[in-house]
Amino acid sequence: MILKPQKREQIIPMPVVLISTMDKNGIPNIAPWSNITPILRPFDEIVLASWIKRDTLANIREMHEFIVNIPSSKMIEEVMVCSRNYPPDVDEFIEAGLTPRTSTKLKTPGIDGCLAWAECLLTEEIMRENYSLIIGKVVYLEGNDDFFNEAGEMDFERAHPLSIMLGEKEMQFTRPVVSGRKAAYSEMFIK
Ligand SMILES: Cc1cc2nc3c(=O)[nH]c(=O)nc-3n(C[C@H](O)[C@H](O)[C@H](O)COP(=O)(O)O)c2cc1C
Fold it and tell me: Which residues lie closer than 8 Å to 58 by C-beta, 6 or more apart?
């Protein structure tokens, strides 16, 4: 099947995270995000793409910080509540019934009960006509002890991180599962 080039988001499974931010008056904000990725391994930067009209973007510009919270697939309803277009003075923690979690390095609260939390400082914004690319440096990273082993690896099967496939008329929430095949990084260097 041939698809239009701008449908490229329909062929790539994407993560779902919740970004928490805060404005200068201390009002917190939460929004789901899928256009987000770590920049290569083993660095400490993350890039996300944001439409211009986002309270999340305004808050990141204002406070220079944000938190990437990793929800489980049990939090789909809360994710969708946070995706609604509330005015900037509405606290999405209250709307979605989520509990704030004190952060370690930042003023912005994280979201209690998530699988992991990455506290990020804004390092660069790359502006385009309709959107911006935000590059953040992870300054503190924590995994929920209920779902991480001592090596810092997520117990994927129990944690149920959330992902998504975008379709023509709707989004389909998905959940990655283990395939049974593991690969050492050194396999990439075998000639
Ligand atoms: C699963 C999901 C992923 C999303 N990913 C993005 C994204 O990557 N970039 C973006 O600008 N908006 C994205 N959105 C839309 C925002 O979450 C939504 O517009 C939200 O209301 C923005 O809130 P804010 O104005 O408080 O930042 C996504 C929505 C959902 C449901």
Answer: 23, 88
Condensed to tens digits (0 to 9), the pLDDT of residues 21-62 reads 999 999 999 999 999 999 999 999 999 999 999 999 999 999
Q: Under the phi-then-psi rule, with left for phi > 0, alpha for psi from -120 to 50, and beta for the rest, what region is 121?
A: beta
Query: What is the number of the ligand 1 atom nearest to the C-alpha of 80?
Result: 31
Distance in Å, CA 42 to ligand 1 centroid: 27
| Dist CA 170 CA 179 (whole Å) | 27
Q: Distance (Å, rounded) from C-alpha 117 to C-alpha 65?
A: 13
Closest atom of ligand 1 to CA, residue 53: 25
Beta strand spans in 63-130 (E): 65-70, 100-101, 110-111, 116-127
Q: How far is the CA of 55 from the centre of ligand 1 (A)?
A: 10
Domain 5-189 of CATH type 3.40.250.10: no
Q: pTM score > 0.90 for this model?
A: yes
What whole-number distance in Å separates Cα of residue 143 and Cα of residue 140? Answer: 10
Domain ranges of the chain: 5-189
